[in-house]
Amino acid sequence: MKPIVIAIDGPAASGKGTLARRLAAAFNLPYLDTGLLYRVVARRVLDHGGNPADPAIATAQARGLGRLDLGRDDLRTPEVDLAASAVASIAAVRAALLDFQRNFAASSGAVLDGRDIGTIVFPQAAVKLFITASLDVRAQRRFAERQIQGHTATLDAVRADLAVRDEADRTRTAAPLRPADDAHVLDTSALDADHAFAAAAAWVNQALAKV
């Protein structure tokens, strides 16, 4: 049987990461947060004093990425958020990371979440979900995360950062953020984590029944 791939896409703070982890556990599949790959590239660029928007510098760091980099504890800061959006807009960076993502799911299948899993990385995935939520709800979620992490950014600042990142993700030339034509769109604005999981799991079961 062909390895099962569940592709989950959506904007920042839509709840796709939490949902992807729970689906991976429920369906006994490996999990990869592909956004973390771009955060690692961004962090590596910043560590070397480079400009995340410079294609040559960002691509070189993408090609040097190793699995140990994914364990860093400095990948979820406002600075890295914006830098990750910049490196993700570079086609050569995305190409450099494409094999990493595909190889991850090659033998055992996987649940992967990101921005272009269903459209570019795994266009033939058995299941495709696009998780979204309103900007205000996503800002509240990200603000709560930042408070737990000890950051001092205001809610307005967090909302503005998300709006900038949304625009960059939607309008970039390389793999812009959009639902795959055959993706199931799930709006989590009014759903807590348990209800979002129940809705997503029901859709996954329905889709897998057709495989």
From TrEMBL:
Major subcellular site: cytoplasm
UniProt keyword list: ATP-binding, Cytoplasm, Kinase, Nucleotide-binding, Transferase
Protein's recorded name: Cytidylate kinase
InterPro entries hit by this protein: Cytidylate_kin (IPR003136), Cytidylate_kinase_dom (IPR011994), P-loop_NTPase (IPR027417)
Domain Cytidylate kinase, chain residue ranges per copy: 6-196
Source organism: Acidiphilium rubrum
Keyword Membrane: no
HAMAP family per UniProt: Cytidyl_kinase_type1
Subcellular location: Cytoplasm
SUPFAM superfamilies: P-loop containing nucleoside triphosphate hydrolases (SSF52540)
Swiss-Prot/TrEMBL catalytic activity: dCMP + ATP = dCDP + ADP; CMP + ATP = CDP + ADP
GO biological process, one term: pyrimidine nucleotide metabolic process
Family: Belongs to the cytidylate kinase family. Type 1 subfamily.
Keyword Nucleotide-binding: yes
Cellular component terms (Gene Ontology): cytoplasm
